[in-house]
Amino acid sequence: MTKLQYKTIELKDVELKSEEDGATFSGYASVFNGNDLVGDTILPGAYKDAIENFTPKMFFNHDSYSLPIGKWIKVEEDEKGLKVIGELTPGNPQSEAVKAALKHGTVDGLSIGYKLVASGYKRKKDGGRTIEKIEALPEISIVTFPCDQSARIDSKSEDIDELKTVRDFENYLRDAGGFSKAEATALCAKARAVFSDQGEPDGEEKAQKEVCERIKALAERFN
C-alpha cells in the first residue's frame, strides 16, 4: 500500500473574488520542472492520469477527518503546473474563516496530498526525485505554511512542547519536515508520554512504534 505524501507551495498570484455567499479563487497547487525543498522535480504530465477521472477533495491543513471546506471546480495541467480553481462552501464557519484569511493574506499556501509508486519516479544522484507520474491525488489543501518554512523550523521545539493529544500528533506530522535529529528524539519522547496517557493499553505500544518510525523517517529525509 502506498502512503499519502504532501508537498506545499506558496499561493502566488492568487485571484480571490466573492460570488454570492461563497468565494472562488485560483492558483497553482504544483509547479513543474523546479526543485522543491527536498530536491524533488515534478515533470509535465505527472498528474494527467490522477486527475482524469477524479477530482481531489478540498480541506484546510490536510484535516481529512473534518468536513471539506469547499470544492475544486477545475483541476488541470498547463505549461506552468497544476492549475486549480476552487470554491469555498457558503455557510460553513471554517470556510468563512479561510475565506477571510485568504483575503487578508494570512493564509497563502496550497498543498497536495498524493501517492507515488516506485515506477513513477527516479532517484537523482544528488538527492531528491524526478517525479514522472503521480499515482493518485486524493486531496489538495489550503495550508497555513507554504513551501518556505524557515520561521516554522525555528519554532519547532516549542511546537513539540504544545502537543497534548493524539490528534495534535496527527496534525503535526501531516505538515512536519525539516527538524533535526535532536528534535526528532524529543518528539518521540513526547509521543511516548502522550500515548501512555491516552492510548488504549492493547494498542499503546503499536501506536508509539508507528509514530516514532514516521518521525525517524522524516528526520532522515531532511538531514
TrEMBL record:
Q: Which UniProt keywords apply?
A: Hydrolase, Protease, Viral release from host cell
- Asked if Zinc is a keyword of the record, the answer is no
Query: Any signal peptide, and if so, which residues?
Result: none
Which GO terms fall under molecular function for this chain's record?
A: peptidase activity
Concerning Pfam families, the annotation shows: Peptidase_S78
Does the keyword Isomerase feature in the UniProt annotation? no
Q: Which GO terms describe its biological process?
A: proteolysis
According to the entry, every stretch annotated as the Prohead serine protease domain falls at 13-164
* Protein name as it appears in the record: HK97 family phage prohead protease
Classification of source organism: Bacteria, Pseudomonadati, Pseudomonadota, Betaproteobacteria, Burkholderiales
